[in-house]
């Protein structure tokens, strides 16, 4: 089954709705060209061969690249949730949303690497987000970043 990707216009609309529904903030765009590049780049199967790889890159970049004046962590969650829904991962969306707020904070802070994010994303897609070894890896990563 071919993967359904988000367009830049759809991503901007997701941002607008996310900021409005989640308590507000600035609607300003800082660098939509970067977001557009990420949205196109994840379509390259040579770099991102699996759906998990694509979601991981999108989430990581949305958290780290500050394409928007406000809501970058929220937009990472919303964009990936939208991709999950568009591609039939209905069972995974609840677990993803439930766990992703803490993960997004630590990705943005630099405590969770892209590699560890990918492991977490894989676990969420397979319903294994409660895996004890993965939880320990995340705990250790977060602990190293704590003051």
Number of strands: 0
Measure the end-to-end span: 46 Å
What is the number of independent domains?
A: 1
Total count of helical runs of at least 4 residues: 7
Structural class: mainly alpha
For the report, how would you describe the main beta sheet?
none
Based on CA atoms alone, the radius of gyration comes out at: 15 Å
How much helicity do the residues have?
A: 55-70%
Series of secondary-structure elements, N-terminal to C-terminal: HHHHHHH
Mean pLDDT: 87
**What does the oligomeric state look like here?**
single chain
Shape: globular
Strand share of the residues?
Answer: under 5%
Model regions low in confidence, pLDDT < 50 over at least 5 residues: none
Q: Can you name the CATH architecture?
A: Up-down Bundle
By CATH reckoning, the class would read Mainly Alpha
Can you identify the CATH superfamily?
Answer: Fic/DOC protein, Fido domain
The CATH topology name reads Four Helix Bundle (Hemerythrin (Met), subunit A)
Walk me through what this model shows:
The chain has helices spanning 8-21, 32-41, 51-64, 72-86, 90-108, 114-125, 132-145. With 147 residues, the chain is mainly alpha-helical. The protein has one domain (8-145): Up-down Bundle (Four Helix Bundle (Hemerythrin (Met), subunit A)), CATH 1.20.120. Helix 3 (51-64) packs across helix 6 (114-125). It is globular, with a radius of gyration of 15 Å.
What key attributes describe this structure?
mainly alpha; 67% helix
Protein topology:
Blueprint (H helix, E strand, L loop, with lengths): L7 H14 L10 H10 L9 H14 L7 H15 L3 H19 L5 H12 L6 H14 L2
Helix pairs in contact: 1-4, 3-4, 3-5, 3-6, 4-5, 5-6
